[in-house]
Amino acid sequence: MIGGEQLIVIAGPCAIETEELLKETAFKVRGAGADMLRGGAFKPRTSPYSFQGLGVVGLETLARVGEAMNMPVITEVMDSDDIPAVAEYADILQVGARNMHNFSLLKKLGRTNKPVLLKRGMAATVEEWLLAAEYILAGGNSQVVLCERGSRSAEKWTRNTLDLSAVALAKELTHLPVIVDPSHGTGVRSLVMPMAKAAIAAGADGIIIEVHPHPEKALSDGDQSLTPRQFSILMREIEPVAKAMGRRIR
Amino acid sequence: MIGGEQLIVIAGPCAIETEELLKETAFKVRGAGADMLRGGAFKPRTSPYSFQGLGVVGLETLARVGEAMNMPVITEVMDSDDIPAVAEYADILQVGARNMHNFSLLKKLGRTNKPVLLKRGMAATVEEWLLAAEYILAGGNSQVVLCERGSRSAEKWTRNTLDLSAVALAKELTHLPVIVDPSHGTGVRSLVMPMAKAAIAAGADGIIIEVHPHPEKALSDGDQSLTPRQFSILMREIEPVAKAMGRRIR
Amino acid sequence: MIGGEQLIVIAGPCAIETEELLKETAFKVRGAGADMLRGGAFKPRTSPYSFQGLGVVGLETLARVGEAMNMPVITEVMDSDDIPAVAEYADILQVGARNMHNFSLLKKLGRTNKPVLLKRGMAATVEEWLLAAEYILAGGNSQVVLCERGSRSAEKWTRNTLDLSAVALAKELTHLPVIVDPSHGTGVRSLVMPMAKAAIAAGADGIIIEVHPHPEKALSDGDQSLTPRQFSILMREIEPVAKAMGRRIR
Amino acid sequence: MIGGEQLIVIAGPCAIETEELLKETAFKVRGAGADMLRGGAFKPRTSPYSFQGLGVVGLETLARVGEAMNMPVITEVMDSDDIPAVAEYADILQVGARNMHNFSLLKKLGRTNKPVLLKRGMAATVEEWLLAAEYILAGGNSQVVLCERGSRSAEKWTRNTLDLSAVALAKELTHLPVIVDPSHGTGVRSLVMPMAKAAIAAGADGIIIEVHPHPEKALSDGDQSLTPRQFSILMREIEPVAKAMGRRIR
N or C: which terminus of chain A carries fewer CB neighbours within 10 A? Predict the structure, then answer.
């Protein structure tokens, strides 16, 4: 499903906050052409005192909204104990950058039959990323989607440095689909659009974009979230680039 | 126990390979003055096809050898499911650099009553490292030991770049003891001695050193392991530096 | 001239080796659609024992070939003493990544009336890059072209990590044209094409590409040089991406 | 002179501001035991609008104060055109981190007969640093002193990450003396002392320390400058570490 002529576009808030907000976001991103809904229920936060996500309640909300909107949903799994719950509610299980080296989690995901989106670690080499995928594949689960989300660097004006050559390398060296997260990859709203285009031109099979109806009030990652209106413009503007690459949106 | 006038010296092989080898190593590092025995039973390896450690059998071996030699033991826990087993056999539970951002694991370790050695992540800032410790402390477990083990960099002649200013910063900003791992921190045998001395001069409360009777045959990390004889020389040579800092070995 | 609807494409060998080779390369890249010829006469090499370039003889060769082919030429200036000579022969003076922080050179280039291509330093932040440009602009020379060429990172499979978000940032924050060097930016021949496309999609005003008739025999940077035939394919393939961005090639 | 049993201690302000301030600083650091006086006349500043140093007037001031205090002096040379002037006034010529890759400057310094202090570039590998020294040595000037001053990293609480394993590596691989700059290497006043001690324990042949009578009023680098009193305490505290290493101060 991911990796064909059609690019996949995943959109939604960083974290699931309320059912209403999620529904509003889902309705608008679907209208703009998104294929899939994202939203975090378990949030890996640097500080234990930051909002940690709604947990299972968030999973239920996500599943309900996805069903209502007829959109498949993706959410992060942080703990091997949560795999059954996340697998029950989500269509794709996401492994975040902070857990790319969590080999116990990867091994257990290798024994599920759900697709896994594997984000690249914040300082992982491409080789380590592909070997992390191998942990899942070796367990018998062949449905792995790679996701480039930027590496840590000394640059101060972005949150991470998005490495699009990693996309080209991964496409060259593996048969796995590769998508790009320009929201975390830059941490800067105005850079999401140019990097989404660049990602597609580099050969990515899709993008995952943070969208929030009121970014200034978001409980996390507001600075990098697009408004639904900005997302809608992004969808329109990436279309010609996709076409230039022989791909299509929806 | 860690953080007083006496520096702690932890030594042992990267991975537990056989009971005989571990016994030989323990006997020799104890003779040279080590306080505590290290050895990995669960090994976080970049590739799923590399040696993954002996698991519970390794834990049993470690505990048996530690008891026979009258040395407390430390070993890594990679998965929250393994906490009970590791806590049964080990005196200190180690969180490796690859799991510093594994917040689920940290939260569960906050609910145990065993000391935790928290290695700094390979690209973690000092702030993130201290906040990772906060995840354990916030759970009610106040026995956290920080361990600097080098950050990823572009330098090709070392495996990591050991950041001793992080030790001084952590000592300045927290009340937690801080130790240094010059073996992983450099990845180069000949650099272990000078970096052990530098660590102590920077204010570290101890060091953790990889020692293997036959580094060239080690199943992992042979290039950075000292022979027992080299470890014995190291112990002799760090002593005057410790004294200069108003500390002592044993 | 640079920064309008038309993208600029600069191509040629890393170093000027012989007049014959340069002529052959120029003839072929011009045929494929390149606007400008590049070639190094003064080469900043890591080792003093590596080929250092042909110096003034190289400059003369470059100017002769450029005139014969009716192509403007660009070459690097490494020393303020060489500015007059380089300015005599070249249409654009290039400051390499290793000299981005060479403020004496930048100040003197501010007093010339020739366009300057300013490469980003190998670990420079975007702010430092823009302030380096300011050194030239403050001297009265307003013809500055920025060039992103990749930053140093821990990735082992590429020579540098090309940072296309820096292109978008520089376009957003300055009025200066910005071009991209995917050859140095990746160091890997197979990545030049996808990164050239991605650069254009990110908003770059042009690209600079290393081309050598026999990359395997090149005196420097053979691994990242395209053959004239590969360059010709690249020119064909970037065209639709340029169009999608509302730009054109030639 | 540098590299023997006695460690060299170089101290002084970042920039030469006034003769009075420099004299006061020199008087105090000499009293505390410094061997040599530092002070910048040509300052490599990120912005063209920051204080650029006093130039030749600064050189004259430095030489006058050095002579009056009977202290040899060291200052930075940024431009090959300035080599004669700097060589006339200074006992050691310093190449800053931003010019480590300025091969034209290095080559010309190879033809002088003055000692050169070569700082490691902000993202240079140890190999590149040693090859930069080779540019000077290959010209016939064998008096090269290496200086580690920290590498750029993603750490936010320090200005650079001081890499003391580079000191040990350089001592192991070359016969050149190696000193450490903990002021630039950390950018944080409270870290200068622990890193000075650690540098000596790592095998450094000396340290270079920024001292300013009124750091809060310094025209540059105030945050990392010690007061004369703090410098005096540092001198007293590094002495036992030096002794432990079989070295001495003065």
Answer: C
C236/A contact by beta carbon, under 8 A: no
Q: What is the pLDDT of residue A250?
A: 85
In tens, the pLDDT along A90-109 reads 999 999 999 999 999 999 99
**Helix/strand/coil (H, E, C) string of D32-93?**
HCCCEEECECCCCCCCCCCCCCCCHHHHHHHHHHHHHHCCCEEEECCCHHHHHHHHHHCCEE
> In this structure, are residues C10 and C74 in contact, taking their beta carbons and an 8 Å threshold?
yes
Place of tokens 């060589």: D87
pTM: 0.96
Identify which has the larger pLDDT, A165 or D222: A165
Question: Which burial class, exposed, middle or buried, applies to B103 when counting CB atoms under 10 A from its CB (0-12, 13-18, 19+)?
Answer: buried
Rounded to whole angstroms, what are the CA distances from D239 to A192, B7, B183, D36? Answer: 54, 21, 28, 17
Q: Is C166 on the interface with A (CB under 8 A)?
A: yes
What is the per-residue DSSP string for D190-233?
Answer: HHHHHHHHHHHHTT-SEEEEEB-SSGGG-SS-GGGPBPHHHHHH
CA distance D86 to C104: 15
Q: In three state form, how does the secondary structure of B108-128 look?
A: HHCCCCCCEEEECCCCCCHHH
Instruction: Give dist(CA C97, CA C77) in Å, integer.
Output: 11
Residues D145-154: tens digit of each pLDDT: 999 999 999 9
- Alpha-carbon span C4 to A145, nearest angstrom: 38
**Which amino acid, residue C131?**
L
Burial of A12 (0-12, 13-18, 19+ CB in 10 A): buried
C 35-54: CB under 8 A from B? none
Which residues in chain B are contacts of D155 at CB distance < 8 A? 125-126, 151, 163, 166
D157 touches chain A (CB under 8 A): no
Q: Return the pLDDT at D222.
A: 87
A171-209 pLDDT, tens per residue? 999 999 999 999 999 999 999 999 999 999 999 999 999
Q: Quick one: tokens of C154?
A: 């821990």
Pairwise CA distance, residues C147 & C166, whole Å: 10
Structure confidence at residue A124 as a pLDDT band (50, 70, 90): very high
**Which pLDDT does position B222 carry in this prediction?**
87
The DSSP bridge partners found for residue D161 are: D151
Environment class of residue C84 by beta-carbon count within 10 Å: exposed (0-12), middle (13-18) or buried (19+)? exposed
Closest chain B CA to residue A43: B103
Lowest mean pLDDT among A160-164, C53-57, C215-219: C215-219
User: Residue D135: its pLDDT value, please?
Assistant: 97
Q: What are the pLDDT digits (tens) for D24-52? A: 999 999 999 999 999 999 999 999 999 99
Q: How far apart are CA C119 and CA C178, in angstroms?
A: 10
Q: What angle do CA C138, C140, C144 make, to 5 degrees?
A: 80
How far is the alpha carbon of A97 from chain B, nearest alpha carbon, in Å?
9
Contact of A153 with chain B, judged by CB distance below 8 Å, is answered with no
Residue A148 β-bridge partners: A180
How close does chain D come to C118, measured CA to CA in Å?
Answer: 15
Which three-class secondary structure state does DSSP give residue B15?
strand
Mean of all residue pLDDT scores within chain D: 97
Q: How far is A95 from chain D (nearest CA, A)?
A: 23
D92 touches chain B (CB under 8 A): no
CB environment C193-226: b (16+ within 10 A), e (fewer): bbbbbbbbbbbbbbbbbbbbbebeebbbbbebbb
